[in-house]
Amino acid sequence: MEPRLLENKKEFSLKGFFMQWEWMLVLLFVAMTIMNVNLSEFYWNFDNLRDATMSFLDKAFIVLPMVFIIILGDIDISVGSIVALSSVIMADLYNHGVPMPLAMVICLAVGTLCGFINGLLIVKFKELSAVIVTLSTMIIYRGIAYILLKDQAAGKFPDWFNFLGWDYVGGIPFILIVFAVFAVGFWYLLHKTTFGRKVYAMGSNITASRFSGIQTDRVKIIVFTLAGLMSAVTALFLTSRMGSTRPNIATGYELDVIAMVVLGGISTSGGKGRMIGAILAIFLIGYLRYGLGLVNVSAQTLLIIIGLLLIFAVAVPQLKRVRSKR
Amino acid sequence: MKNRGGQPVVVPAGSPGPTGSGQPAAATKKSLSASIAKFRELGLLAFIVILAVGVQFRNTSFLTWENLNDIATNTAILSILAVGMMLVIITRGIDLSIGATLALSGMIAALTVKEYPGLNPYVAVLLGVGIGIACGAVLGFLVSKINILPIIATLGMMNVFRGLTYEASGGKWVSAHQMPESFKAIATGKVLGINNLIFIAILIYIVAYYFVNHTRTGRQIYAVGSNPESAEVSGIKSGRILWLVYTIMGGLSGLAGVLWVAKFASAQGDTASGYELSVIAACVLGGVSIAGGSGKISGIILGSVLLGILNNALPMIDVSPFWQNWIQGMIILVAVLINAMVKRGIDRNNLMRRRI
């Protein structure tokens, strides 16, 4: 009997290739660069660009797992608080005599645990949306940070700890190298492993996925735990860069991270989007901030711009869908 | 419990040994969670009373007329916002931008009265409400017409409104001495011997009660929330309902903004930042289901009052302010978990009833 052939590769079409959201991001990136170069003579300077990269990459670590979460059709708004809690615990332990390397490991463990709790609550109480679960843990985690440190700052880390946030390896910022490694790892996990395919499947139709034998609960817990772990990685780099920590550190990070993911073309209704888009969006927003900062655009105006960018990024695909429905 | 009487007759006859022995035990468990649902408000009330008595033991100045009046005035703004938030949550949405909307309308009202001290305070209130409605209408448009998820739309616009607040004020505060007495009197004045804030809150609750229980549009809000598809099929214009709900929320936030600024006699860029969380907490405590479709006015009154009492009582019994965040978060979490479990119990009970 003739075996039935299933076409598993879509035909390559030039138009389809260039009509992707990622090209739109590349165009935006070029436009932004041209604008920034014209705005300030200091923008197009290798040292400046390199150092700017160091200052905005900290939250980029959270973007990677957030891509998974949003593809699942969920959301995690507690990541900023996880950064704060793991950073505060690390600093507090170090100030109470725990050796720094151990404190750093505990920082990662705390973040992972926080993420795991999020995931566990979300799969055990399916009737609650991830919004409300992470909303409450967001308040709780930061609440614990406040209980530990009150309104104090903690710091006085050993000198070598500055390495994370401030140093270069072979002329390349250390944080950029670490980020590149993680980015490749998460890209591989999402696009080249069965785990990644399961995430897409669950984002498109969670019931169908469960019936086709995917352990949906386990996948969800792993994804949220990864978000916790990467928030703790952010905590390490951010704390190193700041030199000290406070309970209100990383406030509003969840918004920046979600904005980057959504701008990267990952659909909030789940099941769609690619890692490369989110990574482009990190650099787009990062350099936009840096460029506008050079010409003294205030932080408040940037707030408005980021907010509008977020709305724009979600509105465009939605409008396309509404039109194609008609 | 209608089925309870019939059960012993039907179950032993219809089911074989092992399931028969399992069922009565399960049935009592189900009716327990169902009765919790029935007496949720009563339980909340009992909790409030116990809390009040407990605090009174530790600090005797808690249950004084003055302090109770304080609590009521402080809770008024929260409870006004809770009405709007309840409507939003009933439609399966959430609004994280209300803190920013409140700040923006409060700031613009304050700047206006600073510029024109002779202005009638009612005009200032109307101005605030108008700005709030405009903000809410934008959100409603994004949610209903462009189909953006409420959390994303409100998160984005929260930034925009907050940024506009700083832009409008140039980063400066409007402080007490720049506001005319007539404006500050909005919060301190009295109607029929009741503080204005409390009076406005009561008025809003009466209107809201009538609106959600006795008007067609009010009932349609519940219909859209409990099942959007069937609401659409039965001819409800759900887009319009969503738009309306966010606009009401915006209007109430605008009103709350003016009241807030008048009460604290200062308008700042970061006014009420994070206040949306308290409002959501009040709703969740009051039994408004995050899954949409259910929520009662009586519930959110109690939820707001409980939060108001907690905010007032914790400092009085020497709980460090640094614990308050954690306590509030735990309360929200426990409340939503209990809500979820009660809902499970009810669903199981309904299934049970169908089988018999």
Primary descriptors:
heterodimer, A: 326 residues, mainly alpha, ABC transporter involved in vitamin B12 uptake, BtuC, two-stranded antiparallel ribbon, two-stranded antiparallel sheet, 15 helices, 72% helix, globular, B: 356 residues, disordered N terminus
Description:
The complex is a heterodimer of chains A (326) and B (356). With 326 residues, chain A is an all-alpha fold. Chain A has helices at residues 14-18, 21-39, 46-56, 60-71, 79-95, 100-124, 130-149, 162-166, 174-192, 194-204, 206-211, 216-242, 253-263, 275-294, 299-325; strands at 154-155, 168-169, 172-173, 244-245. Chain A has one domain (22-318): ABC transporter involved in vitamin B12 uptake, BtuC, CATH 1.10.3470. Chain A has 15 helices and four strands. In chain A, strand 2 (168-169) and strand 3 form a beta hairpin. In chain A, helix 4 (60-71) runs parallel beside helix 9 (174-192), helix 5 (79-95) runs parallel beside helix 7 and helix 9 (174-192) crosses helix 10. The mean pLDDT of chain A is 87. Chain B contains 15 helices and two strands. Chain B has a two-stranded antiparallel sheet with strand order 1-2. In chain B, helix 13 crosses helix 14 (297-316). The longest helix of chain B has 32 residues, at 324-355. At the A-B interface, helix 7, helix 13 and helix 15 of A face helix 7, helix 13 and helix 15 of B.
